[in-house]
Predict the structure.
Amino acid sequence: MFLNFEENPEAKDYLSSLAKEQWNDELLLIWRRQKTKEQWTPDFREQRHIAYNKTYYNKTIKLMKTTFEKSGNLENFDEARIVNNDKSVLSLKTFCSRFFDNDKEKMIEAVQHYNHKIKRIEWLKEKIDVYDIEVPNTHNFALASGIFVHNSAKQARNKEYQAILPLKGKILNVEKANPTKVLASEEIANLITAVGTGVTESFDMEKLRYGRVIIMTDADVDGQHIKTLLLTFFYRYMPKLIENGNIYVAVSPLYRVRKKEDFYVYSDEELKIILKKVGENSDVQRFKGLGEMNPQQLWDTTMNPRTRILKRVAIEDAVEADTIFSILMGEEVAPRKKFIIEHAHEAFLDV
C-alpha cells in the first residue's frame, strides 16, 4: 500500500503534523537517543570507519587515475575534485596523509597501478624461474624478499630428508619486543610450528620434528644480521635446542673461481691463496647472496651433506650473539657507542 500525496494532500498534512509531534515528544526523544547509543558500539564504529575509508579510498584514487591519465601528474587534482563536487573524494593532501603516511611517491605509484587490466596472455615456450620473467612495457610484480633463495633451495634440496622454511627477510627483533608480540609474529609462529617443540615453559624436546635446524643466510652484512636475529630467538625461546646441539649454521661461499674447474671460496684470505695457485687471470664471481646461485650451485656448496660446511651452534655462540645484539639493538646508548669505537677497525664495508 502507498499513498499518492498529490491525490491525498490531507494525508501529507497529517503525517507532517504527526512527525512534528513526535520530534517534540521528550520521552520519544530519550528513547531514540538511547537506541542510537546502543547501536554505536565500538565494533559498529570500527566497521563504519572501515567502510567510510574504503569509500574515500576508492572514489579518490579513481578520480586521481583519470586526472593522471589526462595530464601525466596530479597537480590539477584538487581542482578536478572541486569540479567533481563529491564530498567522498578527499583532497590530495588528506588522501596522501591518511593512506600513505605522507609518502607522495608511494601514492603516485598506487595511482599509476590502479585498475590494471589483462590485455593479453602469452604462452612461454620454455620454463623460466619466476624471478627471471620480465614482460616489457608492463608492470612487473616484485615477489617477497628472499624468494630467489627459496626457489633455488626448493629445487636443490633432497625432498626425502630436507625441508625448507622460507622466511621473508629479517624476523622480529625479540630483544626489544615483548613475548606477546613475538609469538604473534607470523614469521616466528611459522618457525615455531615447523620446529614443533613449542617455546619456553611449553617446550618439549620429544616433539622436535627435525634432527638438525640449519640457518642458511647470505654471507653479507644483512645475512649476518638475520643469522643473529635467529640465534637470539633460539637462545631466548628454545635454548635447549642449542644445548642439545640441534642448531646449525650453513657456511655459504663468498666467491666462485673458475679456471678449467670451479673453486668455491669462503673468505678473502682463501681467495688470495686460490688465485696464487691457479693464476690471477681466472674468472672470479662474487656472490652477494644465495639468490645469485642456481639450484645446482646451491646444492654443491651449501646443501649437499657430502660437500657442505656446517657449524654447530654452541651455547657460548648464542650467548655471544645475544650479548652483542643486546649492545647494538638494545635501549642503552653508551654500551653501543663504546662497542663501535672499540671495534671500528674490524668493520667490513661491502660497497
Q: What stands out?
A: The two ends are 80 Å apart (CA to CA). The first helix runs from residue 9 to 23.
